[in-house]
User: Fold this.
Amino acid sequence: MTGDLNGRVCLVTGASRNIGRAIAVSLANRGADIVVHVANDVDAGAQTVAAVEAAGRRAALVSGDLGAPDIARRVVDEAIAAFGQLDILVNNAAIRPEAAFDQITYEAWRNVMATCLDSVFLVSQAALGALKKSDQAAIVNIGGMTAHTGAQHRAHVVAAKAGVVGLTKAMAHDLAPDGITVNCVVPGLIETERLAAAGGAQPKHRGTRTNLLGRRGLPQEVAEAVTYLAGAGGRYVTGECLHVNGGAYLS
Assistant:
């Protein structure tokens, strides 16, 4: 399927590093031009842009808080203007703070909901006009395994990611008449870089989680699942959750 995304343009949100960057590069390797979104880390975003360009494709960088409706619209408008079209949207932007349930403030709850769930709604809705013009339009939302298993000290994250699953299914129903597929890729136990701002440590639930394959996955392995759903081979798949977790959770 190499090159099956030639002539396509993809917006990847939350693409500064880790899974987001891997998705951007994987799609570029299949021929797509990439709009790289970051919340505010433009230096990391520039590294993703460089990685896409090293794969031989065009790249542009956009930034902003996707949980704010006006900013989400502006980011999508800039993404469409960058290359004149939009065929694929990957909603990957997320934050994953940890706190005991009785310590989660409403402000923290709303911040997680805005970044992890509201952004999927806002960006997808803003991109709809451009996606309807494509003959191979796809939306891929990035979920989280804990939305299906639960996890300690992550009530807000678990709830938001569970909402992404429900939203994916609802959007698949509504957008099918426009030829737009909508799916969710659910990573679990993936080896990623933890930023100092996130505490640097691994999440608490990882200490008790194992999988059948006996190893952590790589961001590239999640990216391959996204690329399949966004590409020509995934056109008959919609409304699905594709789990990439080495057998840590069997759906």
User: Anything to note?
Assistant: The helical segments are 18-29, 42-54, 69-83, 106-131, 146-149, 155-175, 219-230. Residues 9-244 form a domain with the Rossmann fold fold (CATH 3.40.50.720). The two ends are 27 Å apart (CA to CA).
